[in-house]
What does this fold into?
Amino acid sequence: MSNLPAPQPGYRDILAKAVTDPNFDVDKLERMISLHESAEMRAANEVFNHALAACEADMETITTDSTNPQTRSRYASFSQLNSHIRPIYTRHGFGVSWNTEPAQDLMHIRVVGMLSQGMVVRRYQIDMPIDTKGSRGQDVMTRTHATMSAYTYGKRALLAGIFNLDVGDHDDDGNAAGKPGGFRRKQAEPTRVPPPEPPPPAPPEAIEQVTDPTTGVVSERIKAFKIAMQDQDNFRTWGARLMAALRNYPQSVEEVDEFLVANDEPIEAMRTDVPQLHTLLVERINDIKRAF
It folds into this structure.
């Protein structure tokens, strides 16, 4: 038996009761709303941080594709960065949007990037010079052209910073190339992938012997079983054990669904108490189903 407490009344149920009860304490209601929103935001930030780390782990070194003829150096354009990483960050539930704001210096433009996932939105910014001059001081572009160039350069810099991107070769457009101490990125260290979570042991009643009618070979099949919430568990650790079971035991989509039915109470409790974590769990379950 799971020692997970029974799901509490939903947040909206409490609000509905408060609206219809003239004796309901309004101050208490406001405190409840504040506590609920704080808990929801903490859970959303935790999901955001874990998803960002997983997103970065999926991103490999990006090669340069452009050359700055004035400095004779190579760099990765915004298009190169974006085309490589957009499929990755959208798969992890992130969205990126861009805007500009006036900078304190009229000869600069402030480029603003917004990284969002669910209810979490994080802001990044960089001020870029609107430079119409070439390396020898001559006019090489109009102010309009220079503004758009600064905007693109700013997006490229922010995108690399947001996801901690590693770019092969030089990525400084020649600003430090050829100079003593000029910046050159180190080769990426091999990533040590942690071992996968082992599946929870199946209880004896969930283990059955199956005989192949064609070959007569006898093998074991693990039927769906309820995964107990241990004393040291929280929803995240319990959810990791559920995912380990789903990755190892079911042999069809139908058997995945049987596991979900057997564990519907804690899954429903997760939906009520930590909805952001529940959303992430559902996405991973759908990935497993698509693999069959």
Helices lie at 11-20, 26-57, 78-91, 143-162, 235-248, 253-262, 264-273, 275-291. The two ends are 30 Å apart (CA to CA).
